[in-house]
Amino acid sequence: MHGAFHTDGGEARFQNSLNEGNTEPLINPGDTYNTQLGLAIRRWCSGILDLPRHASAAEYWRRRSELSELEISLRMTRAAGVSDWLIDTGLDSADYLGLAAMADVSGGRTHEIVRLEVVAEQLIQKLANPADYAEEFGQRLHNLALNAVGFKTVLAYRAGFDRNLGRPTPGAVTEAARRWQENLASGTTSKLTDMTLIAHGIHTAVSMKLPLQFHVGFGDRDLDLHKTNPLYLLDFLRSTGVRETPIMLLHCYPFEREAGYLAHAFENVYIDVGLAVNFTGSRSRDLVARSFELAPFTKILYSSDAFGPAELHYLGARLWRNAVTKVVGAWIDDDDWSEADARRIVRLIAHENARRVYALP
Q: Residue 127's domain is classified under what CATH number?
């Protein structure tokens, strides 16, 4: 997940933040109120802002604008009841609460997830000799790992999964770093899109044995959704050097069943359906149910992937709990599951799996 808003903003910012797919200013931002997410906010978040359930969009915004963003973040994150927040710091900005501020506001613990592409982008601008790229990158990751609980790659956005993820040779890494520096000197963006360096970053992270997160599936329109099917990662997952590192498939919608198969087939693969839980609203119970189909329950983790409005941090937890109550409750009622098994499995997914895999205190 990412930090909640720290600074105050207008209604258009709030509305735009309720659309994950379009990162440009929306022509009709009010449309976001007429979505599963918009309805879920008015149902579940209104009470936290002292409004009746299902307050109108106008009533909700009027009340919301009376409060500071920091107050809203405090109310929503504390109502979420989350003990530990794993935060991807690759989207760090003054507009969003950082690790320390999220801990202060929410009353929970925060843990850093290091984004590989950001580390590379910072390094290339300071590197004197491209031949030193591989060693310098490895040293930076090692130093960051001392205070982090995992790494993350946004390969889904930068290239897609239908690419060669084999470990590149040192010579190929040096040549790619040289080429990147030359492109920077000519005025191109510092955004990492070179597949050789992305693959190098992924394999360097794998060698450190910390959990490695992959954004999978649904996201903004910069990614080619059809190229983020996790089945494209099969060759990578079959690699002998990868098998001892936890591979975390994040979000996964609409590929939650494919991800569930991978968690079933590979002992080091874990899944969650965060992000889409918020955006599917009342339909999230079906999404959660599908995620419970094939993956071992020791391999599924709760996630919200909230970013920006603190309503998303709260709803990620609220809607997940609602879904689990409905789905698992029905299985208990039908005598498919015992209540004891249900409680044990929900505890695993809610926090025990994350605590074990990320070695949380």
A: 3.20.20.140
Using the structure block, give the residue that is written with the tokens 């993820």: 165
Query: Could you please report the per-residue DSSP string of 225-291?
Result: GGGG-GGGGHHHHHSGGGTTS-EEEEE-TT-HHHHHHHHHH-TTEEE--TTHHHHHGGGHHHHHHHH
Residue 1: inside a domain: no
Predicted pLDDT at 265: 98
Q: Can you tell me the distance from the alpha carbon of 235 to that of 229, in angstroms, rounded to the nearest whole number?
A: 13
- Tell me the whole-structure pTM to 2 decimals: 0.96
Band of residue 146 on the pLDDT scale cut at 50, 70, 90: very high
Is residue 151 helix, strand or coil?
strand
Domain assignment present for residue 4? The answer is no
109-115: strand order across its sheet: 84-88, 109-115, 148-153, 212-216, 247-251, 269-271
Residue 300 lies in a domain: yes
The domain in which residue 245 lies consists of 11-357
Residue 5 lies in a domain: no
In the structure encoding, which two tokens stand for residue 65, read together?
């604008």
What is the model's pLDDT at position 185?
87
Render pLDDT for 189-225 as a digit per residue (tens, 0 to 9). 889 999 999 999 999 999 999 999 999 999 999 899 9
Which backbone phi and psi does 198 adopt, to 5 degrees?
-65, -45
Q: pLDDT, tens digit, for every residue of 85-112?
A: 999 999 877 789 999 999 999 999 999 9
What is the tally of structural domains in the chain? 1
pLDDT (0 to 100) of residue 24: 86
- Residue 18 · residue 38 · CB < 8 Å: yes
